[in-house]
Write a structure and sequence with these properties.
- The complex is a heterodimer of chains A (about 375) and B (about 425).
- Chain A is an alpha+beta fold and about 375 residues long.
- Chain A folds into 3 domains: about 100 residues, Butyryl-Coa Dehydrogenase, subunit A, domain 1; about 100 residues, Butyryl-CoA Dehydrogenase, subunit A, domain 2, CATH 2.40.110.10; about 150 residues, Up-down Bundle (Butyryl-CoA Dehydrogenase, subunit A, domain 3), CATH 1.20.140.10.
- Chain A has 11 helices and 9 strands.
- Chain B is globular and about 75 Å long.
- Chain B is of the alpha+beta class and about 425 residues long.
- Chain B is built from 12 helices and 10 strands.
- The termini of chain B are far apart.
- The chains are: A alpha+beta (about 375), B alpha+beta (about 425).
């Protein structure tokens, strides 16, 4: 049994981590937060050209052709660095939709650009509060023209294209591709709980779209791609959780109160251990998710839900307790704790919230009725 | 990333499976599958007799203590081969319950500290199940604070005289030998005044009383010593070195592979699929699904963490720190799962009679046993301290009694 990443994959992780430490310090994350820009464009180009973010795109479409285990490693480091990049939108979703269901022409037109960082894609899905379900979609395409309001759309201001879930003329949920530069698309920035990953409200006023995949297959395709994205987002989550745990540990060693390191109090020690335990359980679930993703296993839907739920719980716990360990300083804008807290709560919702994934997991592992 | 054996591992697995195919006591298979929490349900045979028979058969073929050197009754296999053996032995490993303390803790301590002659005499009989060992560590006043034990050993020529009391001794009534930690010098700091022995449990002056547990079972015992004589040649390590020797035992206690701990989750999942509510099967209720999912990811997290440990062993590496979380997670989980299952049973959940309760009172039994899991073999709090200090590198607790002579340490009782 070799239930671990290979030495080459670990070397990739180490070099990519060093790359991000140099090129994506926390100061550049803060610069994006304070700017109108949706992401760190220089970093995006640099990493795309290095092939890191295109690890799973085949070489024929301009990718590195390495594989999903490599992309998991990259995702973990993006999460650790809080990288302000369109990963959830473009790398884990738009690219995957095109790989899975794009026509030859769509793949040829967009995948090389997505791989090189020359274009950004996103998914425009949610329309109203509550989990998105088939019946919550009102977006409609008539005569190749889309009318819809989609909010929130990740990287909606910066994206060049959006994959949009909408009803076709036969009322069947289908997937469409829209260029966002056309005049029939109105884009407005939306302030969210995590300003290091920008979102927008997109209004489509009879915007021109083209179908992606078969009519009526939109929902099925969405679920399939979200399973894949869930594993990758889970790696971002454990990367962030690991960083938050390390921050809390380091602060507990350095901060003195009552004449001793606060890390010598069991109240703090045990809190940190609970964070560690949660993270290890998440990491192990993520490893299985990575295997299922890379092997295209039938167990991917259950594995993805496990990875997502465990990683969501771990990141939320670690980022929450990280503030608690820091005390009042953790509540300041100046300290970085809130950046992880914000990111953890954004990622918890990015692909649908925990209740959706809980139901999905139990649906998968439900024993046959007696 | 793959789940395949190496060619060498596959060869070993085939050898183990081939031996098991013709040697396992198949008549016990159903009973063993139904047995949980160390209580064997075997038809028409004393479980200890069945256990000894299986252990003896394994020892004749070198499978009884696979990791030990052959000259001490072992099989001389590698750590990963031991894991493969355990996977193949499967449900039949439950028969080894009476020997776990000896094989897992006393044996390795004897191997590290006894004379060559003693090792060659004692260990093969331990491995084969001919002699059973117990561990005499905890006392009424010293559990988590093990170095605070008070059982005295006083030297008289070539012998030692033991007086005091131990508690929570599993299997003491069946044991032939006990690994005994004593205080030999109360005038020095507590960790420095300890000495380890092994003693014949049939010695005059040893009295064993079963403890009636809160779940009405009696797996644990109190052991009393009244002027029990132990020869000096049965001392392990130097006088005053007992704490170091004890650490050998405790390290082995924590070396066992995580993931093997029962959590109750498979039972709960199956129960929720079967249990009917007003609106259909319980498993289809969103609230039930939410709780089930949070248990599910912890159960799978433990399972996959065990695979990471096995992968490290397969590469010839030491298991990583992920191995330390198993009991901490599984113990609390079992308690939560029991309470959740009972809540789904409604008022019937309070029935303990297996003839009348849902699922033969399986979750009621779990409720009443699970508090022990969170205490035995290192309490949740001690495990958290260990992980905090050894894995996360946090400072050790401030110990106000560390440098005091043992007999000057404040006590909460008038003795």
């Amino acid at each position: 049994m070799h239930f671990d990443f290979s030495d080459e994959q670990k070397a990739l992780r180490d070099s990519f981590r060093r790359n991000l430490e140099k090129n994506c310090p926390i100061s550049s994350v803060r610069a994006i937060i304070d700017s109108a820009a949706g992401h760190d464009a220089a970093l995006w180009r640099n990493l795309s050209q290095g092939g890191f973010l295109a690890a799973a795109i085949p070489e024929a479409f301009g990718g590195a052709g390495a594989g999903y285990l490599e992309l998991c490693v990259v995702a973990e480091e993006c999460g650790r660095a809080l990288a302000p990049l369109p990963t959830v939108s473009s790398v884990y979703q738009a690219t995957e939709f095109l790989l899975a269901a794009g026509s030859a022409a769509q793949k040829a037109a967009w995948l090389p650009k997505l791989a090189s960082g020359g274009a950004i894609g996103t998914l425009a899905l949610a329309e109203r509060p509550g989990e998105t379900t088939p019946s919550s979609i009102e977006a409609r395409v008539v005569g190749g023209r889309l009318t819809a309001i989609k909010i929130p759309v990740a990287d909606g201001m910066a994206a060049d294209i959006a994959l949009v879930l909408a009803r076709d003329e036969r009322n069947a949920l289908s997937l469409f591709l829209a260029r966002l530069s056309q005049a029939e698309v109105e884009r407005t920035p939306v302030k969210t709980i995590d300003p290091s990953r920008k979102h927008a409200r997109l209004v489509f006023n009879r915007a021109e779209v083209e179908p992606v995949g078969e009519p009526g297959q939109g929902w099925k395709l969405l679920e399939a791609i979200r399973d894949r994205a869930a594993v990758l987002v889970a790696f971002e989550q454990i990367g962030g959780a690991d960083r938050a745990l390390t921050m809390a540990r380091d602060y507990a060693l350095q901060r003195f109160a009552f004449g001793r390191q606060i890390g010598s109090f069991q109240a703090i020690k045990h809190m940190l251990v609970d964070m560690y335990v949660s993270l290890e359980l998440a990491r192990s679930n993520c490893y299985f998710g990575a295997w299922a993703l890379s092997a295209n296993s039938e167990s991917l839907p259950a594995a993805a839900a496990r990875a997502r739920l465990a990683a969501t719980a771990a990141y939320q716990l670690c980022s929450t307790n990280n503030i608690q360990v820091h005390g009042g300083m953790g509540f300041t804008w100046e300290f970085d704790c809130h950046l992880y807290y914000r990111r953890s709560n954004y990622l918890a919702l990015a692909l649908g919230g925990p209740a959706l994934w809980e139901s999905r997991l139990i649906g998968q592992i439900r024993p046959a009725a007696a | 990333m793959n789940f395949d054996d190496t060619p060498q591992e596959a060869k070993f697995r085939a050898r183990a499976a081939a031996w098991l195919a013709v040697n396992v006591p198949r008549e016990f298979e159903a009973g063993l599958n139904a047995s949980a929490y160390g209580k064997l349900q075997l038809e028409g045979v004393d479980p200890l007799v069945a256990a000894r028979r299986w252990q003896k058969r394994k020892s004749e073929a070198g499978w009884a203590a696979p990791l030990w050197p052959k000259e001490y009754g072992g099989g001389g296999v590698s750590p990963i081969e031991r894991v493969i053996w355990a996977q193949e032995e499967g449900t039949y490993s439950k028969l080894s319950g009476p020997f776990i303390i000896g094989l897992g803790m006393c044996g390795p301590t004897v191997m590290a500290w006894a004379s060559e002659e003693q090792k060659r005499t004692l260990l093969p009989k331990l491995a084969s199940g001919e002699q059973i060992w117990c561990q005499l560590f905890s006392e009424p006043v010293a559990g988590s604070d093990l170095a605070g034990i008070r059982t005295r050993a006083e030297r008289q020529g070539d012998e030692w005289v033991i007086n005091g009391q131990k508690i929570w001794t599993s299997g003491a009534r069946d044991a032939d030998w006990g690994l005994l930690i004593t205080r030999t010098d109360p005038s020095v700091a507590k960790h420095r005044g300890l000495t380890m022995f092994f003693l014949d449990m049939h010695s005059p002056g040893v009295e064993i009383r079963p403890i009636r547990q809160m779940n009405e079972d009696a797996g644990f015992n109190e052991v009393f010593f009244a002027n029990v004589i132990v020869p000096d040649r049965q001392r392990l390590g130097a006088v005053g070195q007992g704490w170091t020797v004890a650490l050998t035992t405790l390290m082995n206690e924590r070396m066992s592979i995580g993931g093997g701990m029962p959590t109750g989750f498979p039972e709960l999942l199956e129960f929720c699929a079967r249990m009917q509510t007003e609106s259909g099967a319980a498993i289809d209720d969103p609230h039930v699904r939410s709780r089930l999912a949070s248990f599910a990811v912890r159960a799978s997290g433990l399972q996959y963490s065990a695979w990471r440990t096995i992968s490290a062993l397969s590469r010839g590496e030491q298991p990583g720190p992920e191995n330390s979380i198993g009991k901490l997670v599984a113990g609390a989980m079992m308690q939560d799962i029991a309470k959740f299952a009972l809540s789904l049973e409604g008022e019937a959940g309070l029935i303990l009679d297996p003839e009348l309760a849902p699922d033969r009172a399986r979750f009621q039994a779990m409720l009443l046993r699970s508090p022990a899991t969170r205490i035995e073999g290192g309490s949740d709090e001690i495990l958290r301290n260990i992980i905090a200090e050894r894995v996360l590198g946090l400072p050790a607790d401030i110990r106000v009694d560390k440098d005091l002579p043992f007999d000057k340490i404040p006590r909460g009782d008038p003795h």
